[in-house]
Every structure is written in structure tokens, then in C-alpha cells.
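haha ok so turns out i had the wrong file open the whole time. this is the CORRECT one, sorry everyone. sequence first:
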Amino acid sequence: MRARLTADFWVRAYLQRLRLADIPAFVTRRGDETAGAVAVKLNTLDGRARAFTRINDATGARVWAVTAEGEDAVVDAALERAARFDPDLWIIEVEDQDGRHLLDEPGLAD
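then structure:
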């Protein structure tokens, strides 16, 4: 059985990895420090954005999936609805014109 990291620890580690890659990011909503879910909003600075959250795929594996995509305001509204449904939700906004978010890298992808 794999130990789960606290949400706060994971968020701090993720932000550090983004900083090391010179990708601006910040927490726009703090959730529960221990068990809060995390949503990542990728803002490509052209009026468009995507939101990613962790889901279980058909095999039961935890994967990052796009849960909202489109105009920046549409993605913000989707994340606001998610936060009303889950008050423990963390939201991290990543800003990168090239669409980099690092969620597909080892240690973050699985």
C-alpha cells in the first residue's frame, strides 16, 4: 500500500518543481491541508485555459484529466462550482504560454 502525501505537502512540492522550470504558478484557493483535492488551472495567457483534476481511470489508476477547457472565464466558473461542491479543494493556477504544467512528469503523473 502506498502512503498518500498531504495536500499541503504535494502543493508545496509541485510549486517548487514549477519554480525550478521557470513556470509561474500560485495558489488561488487553499483547501484542507491534509486531505484536500487539488485542481490545476493552466492559463495559456491567450484568453484560454484548462483545468486538471485527479480521477480514477477505467483501470483504477489515478490520472490527471482535463475537467474544463475553453475561455478563461468559463474555466474559472467551472472551478468555482467545484469549490462550492468540495470546500476542501485546492486550486493552483499555472501561467505558461507554451502550455507546460509538468503534471505528466514522473512523480506528478502517477
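The chain has one domain: 7-95.
again sry for the mixup
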